[in-house]
TrEMBL record:
Organism, scientific name: Kineosporia mesophila
Catalytic activity line of the entry: urea + 2 H2O + H(+) = hydrogencarbonate + 2 NH4(+)
EC number of the protein: 3.5.1.5
Organismal lineage: Bacteria, Bacillati, Actinomycetota, Actinomycetes, Kineosporiales
Pfam families per UniProt: Urease_beta, Urease_gamma
UniProt keyword list: Hydrolase
Protein name stated in the entry: urease
Enzyme class of the recorded protein, top EC level: hydrolase
Pathway as given in its UniProt record: Nitrogen metabolism; urea degradation; CO(2) and NH(3) from urea (urease route): step 1/1
Length: 256
């Protein structure tokens, strides 16, 4: 093959090599340059008062982590730098909801590590305050009450912790949780939206369940219902499917 420009177009590697004085870059080094370039674009747009989109915000967070590592920061310090470089008021609406974590490989003094930045928009809210996308809003002055709450004991029979979120159809939670599945059908945890309940290995704890409201249509989760909760025969069909999949407390003798 001839040199670039003689009978053919230069490849991407050759183009980058020319720009850096003939030094060839590894794929990892090229990726790092792309992140840096996108992050510089994000910084420029932010300086003009523009809110960042998903690629811009992700690149800026990743670049901040990499530069912190290059400066000699430890893993936790680099992670915190990435978490606080942007606040929710500096990104477009919806970005905070979509980007819940950023992962990037950074070179530290003791080697390359994968850094996972969770809650990546923990920077200050700035002048927009409560109007900023993703801002934390104060809860109601009075505690939320849940109608027709049912309290049942739940035991974690697995060797690892299990966490359940507020609006997960409790009937379909982890098969290794032992509880009255029939009683839990059509219910969710009676806790504030976004909350979780953790069950440690071997732990038995009581939880309150409240009926799922609205149209009472359940789609997804573990796929045991996928339709109307109140359709004729729906609960028996769901129990049969759960038993076939190895869920605890779903056999006929368990429900007696």
């Amino acid at each position: 093959m001839g040199p670039p420009g003689v009978g053919r177009a230069p490849t991407l590697t050759e183009t980058i090599s020319i720009k850096v004085g003939g030094m060839r870059l590894t794929p990892t080094e090229r990726d790092r340059l792309l992140i840096f370039t996108a992050a510089e674009l994000a910084r420029s747009r932010r300086s003009r008062g523009l809110r960042l989109n998903i690629p811009e915000a992700t690149a800026l967070i990743a670049d901040t982590v990499c530069e912190a590592a290059r400066d000699g920061a430890r893993l936790a310090q680099a992670m915190e730098a990435g978490r606080t470089v942007l606040g929710p008021h500096e990104v477009l609406p919806g970005v905070v909801d979509v980007v819940d974590r950023v992962e990037v490989e950074a070179v530290f003094d003791d080697g390359t590590r994968l850094v996972v930045v969770t809650e990546p928009f923990a920077g200050p809210h700035g002048s927009l305050g409560e109007d900023a996308p993703g801002a934390l809003l104060p809860g109601p002055a009075q505690p939320i009450t849940f109608p027709d709450a049912l309290r049942i004991p739940v035991t974690n029979t697995s060797p690892v912790p299990i966490s359940v979120t507020s609006h997960f159809h409790f009937f379909e939670v982890n098969p290794r949780l032992r509880f009255d599945r029939r009683a839990a059908y059509g219910r969710r945890l009676a806790i504030d939206a976004g909350g979780t309940v953790r069950f440690d290995p071997g732990q038995t704890r009581e939880v309150d369940l409240t009926p799922i409201g609205g149209a009472r249509v359940v789609i997804g989760f573990a796929g045991l219902v996928d339709g109307s909760l109140d359709a004729p025969g729906a609960i028996d069909a769901a129990l049969e499917k759960a038993h076939a999949c190895g869920y605890l407390d779903t056999a006929a003798e368990d429900q007696a």
